[in-house]
Specification:
- By secondary structure, this protein is of the alpha+beta class.
- The protein has one domain: Alpha-Beta Complex (endopeptidase fold (from Nostoc punctiforme)), CATH 3.90.1720.10.
- It contains six helices and eight strands.
- A six-stranded antiparallel β-sheet has the order 4-3-2-1-5-8.
- The radius of gyration is 14 Å and the shape is globular.
Length: 165
Amino acid sequence: MKQVSVLLTRYNDRMSQFVYWISGRNYTHVSIALEDEPEHYYSFNYRGFTRETLEKHRDRGVKYSRCYQLQISEEAYNKIKSRIDKFQAHRKEYQYNRIGVFLCIIHLPILKREKHYFCSEFVAETLEHSGAVKLKKKPNLYFPNHFVSLLENHPSCVGIVQNLV
């Protein structure tokens, strides 16, 4: 068995404030880390695919966070790692999915733009693609706050760390 971490954070920039108000007033960003390199979290922001650190989150003023530690099969872990490696190798090809955020707001999963993601869409799709977590709806309908109910009592959740950042 291997472990991945899903980190929920709350930022204070304009886009995050918008997400804060329309998605439940809690977390505004989500990223995923691998057991082999727990200091790096992977996600999307308005610049595209990104590799983050806890220090980077602190520097950006994050004061609220919650980290879900999931114990998953070796096969699921390898799929997640392979996917992250692919995104890393081709990072310039991926862009932030502003249209997807809007469609998520109005609950319309009608358009999946290739190589365009927003943070929660990327993490949800990565978890589902690996088989680690079965989603209740399409990945492009997830906001960061939705991960609380998805992971809180999930059988693979082996730990929750409050305010890790």
